[in-house]
Design brief:
The protein contains ten helices and two strands, in the order αααββααααααα. By secondary structure, the chain is mostly helical. A hairpin with a 5-residue loop joins β1 and β2. The longest helix has 31 residues. The model has no long low-confidence stretch (mean pLDDT 86).
């Protein structure tokens, strides 16, 4: 594991990258104890606070865990998909909120991935997945539901659809698409959307999932995508008109 002391990059970031790379390529294996802070400081020729900061970065990424006591120290973590969800969501949220991608690009990607889940979800969904989708459509139809609660329910509905594929890799990849993109899409479109239409789309999707009709699931998702893009465009056009006026 090496760093470049002449680089302008932060030393703690370089150290965390070097250790992360060693974990990723198998040099450091799961449950292996890392060298002590003082040993790492000597190895990288830096101060212990710099090493400590690097270890904090790795812990924040769930790549290592720390244990106290005589047999304690920092150990390579056994990362699970649920552990990684929050990172995926955070990264996707940052990219979208900083306008790194357009609304239409994000929407296109999100629904393309959901449609890719449709055959597996239709074939594998459990009774619990379907029950969650039904419960959320019922919740969304309730009068007086706040915009925040409607958004949460919207996310829960699509998460149940994705998780119905029973594929943790797909669930991980779509965590950012559903749990980051959906709230941001709702923030843009909530003033113009028709809750009744969205509930209708969701009911159609749930009905198709219930009878395991993957083609219909994909068709209804495409219709929801087109409606969402049209809503966003109408909101953006209205904003432009207000600025011009």
């Amino acid at each position: 594991m090496k760093i470049d002391p002449n680089s302008s990059a932060d030393l703690s970031a370089q150290i965390s990258t070097a250790i992360r790379d060693a974990i990723m390529d198998g040099t450091l294996i799961v449950d292996e104890r890392l060298p002590s802070e003082s040993e790492l400081a000597d190895h990288f020729a830096v101060s212990r606070p710099t090493v400590r900061e690097a270890l904090k970065r790795l812990a924040a990424q769930s790549l290592i865990r720390t244990q106290r006591g005589a047999a304690g120290g920092a150990f390579v973590n056994r990362l699970s998909y649920p552990d990684a969800y929050s990172q995926q969501i955070t990264t996707s949220t940052l990219l979208l909120s900083m306008n790194e991608v357009s609304f239409q690009t994000a929407c296109e990607a999100r629904y393309a991935m959901e449609r890719a889940c449709a055959p597996l979800s239709a074939a594998r969904r459990s009774a619990d997945n379907l029950a969650t989708m039904r419960a959320e459509t019922h919740r969304q139809a309730q009068p007086g539901l706040t915009d925040e609660a409607f958004c949460e329910s919207d996310v829960a509905f699509h998460r149940a659809l994705v998780d119905g594929a029973c594929n943790p890799v797909l669930s991980y990849q779509l965590a950012g698409a559903v749990e980051a993109m959906q709230p941001l899409m709702n923030m843009i479109t909530f003033t113009a959307r028709s809750r009744e239409r969205i509930v209708g789309f969701h009911q159609d999707i749930a009905n198709a999932i219930e009878i395991r009709d993957a083609a219909s699931v994909a068709t209804h998702l495409s219709s929801l995508e087109q409606y969402t893009i049209a809503l966003a465009q109408s909101v953006m056009d209205a904003r432009e008109q207000n600025r011009a006026g």
